Amino acid sequence: MTKHTSLTTEQMACVYAWLAQLFSQERDDQSLALLQTRELAEWFAVLKGEPSLEAEVLLLEEKIAALKVREDATLELAADFCSLFLMSDKHAALPYASAHLDGGPNYGVIKQLLSDAGMQVSDAFSESADHLAIFIELLSHLHFSLGEPGGSHQRIDALRRETLVGLLRWLPEFATKCRRYDDFGFYGALSQLLLALVRLDNQS
């Protein structure tokens, strides 16, 4: 893994884990409050130290600031989540690889990657295996593994690269639809940050 970023592999893992959580379910009052903490602001400052992420983080910070004055912010953000990710694909950004790739669902690829990484989809996660959050969680796991001493780093890095290539086949279209159909813009900004992070990771 050739390093082309100021972020450590552990930091990359943490960002991926955070993004996976945000794309996997709606925010409640508590998790919404966590978006507005000093700790997250400090974390964003670290991310802005990476030039290829700075603009996307600034945009996300702008949307988080707007949440503070948005009436019924939790309910409205939940409605945004549902309309973007759970409804018809006509004016939505469905978070499934099969919604953006020709040929319909192909769960075998991601399931094989998960198996090779020693992972599987939790029974508690009710979505299909090609959900965006699964890809992101896998990348988080692989980066954490790369940061551990010993182990087969070459094999893990090969899995990371394969996951990134598969994700980049459809993530740009997903991010474009997020930005187009998310009127408030929180998830649109979040998808732009994810895309920038994945592209940065793919350069490593």
Topology, element by element:
Elements: H1 9-24, H2 29-34, H3 38-48, H4 51-67, H5 73-85, H6 107-116, H7 132-146, H8 153-168, H9 171-181, H10 186-202
Helix pairs in contact: 1-7, 1-10, 3-4, 4-10, 7-8, 8-10, 9-10
Task: Describe this protein's structure.
With 204 residues, the protein is mostly helical. It has one domain (9-202): TorD-like (Orthogonal Bundle), CATH 1.10.3480.10. The chain has ten helices and no strands. It has helices spanning 9-24, 29-34, 38-48, 51-67, 73-85, 107-116, 132-146, 153-168, 171-181, 186-202. The protein starts with 8 loop residues before the first helix and ends with a helix.
Summarize the structure.
It contains 10 helices and no strands. It is mostly helical and 204 residues long.
Distance between the termini: 6 Å
CATH class: Mainly Alpha
How would you classify the helix and strand content by structural class? mainly alpha
Count of discrete alpha- or pi-helical segments spanning 4 or more residues = 10
Number of strands: 0
Helical content band = 55-70%
Element-level helix/strand string = HHHHHHHHHH
Unreliable segments (pLDDT under 50, ≥5 consecutive)? none
What is the C-alpha radius of gyration, as a whole number of Å?
17 Å
Give the name of the CATH superfamily: TorD-like
Largest sheet report: none
Please state the average pLDDT score: 90
Q: What count of domains describes the coordinates?
A: 1
Second CATH tier, the architecture:
Orthogonal Bundle
- Beta content comes to under 5%
What fold name stands as the CATH topology? TorD-like
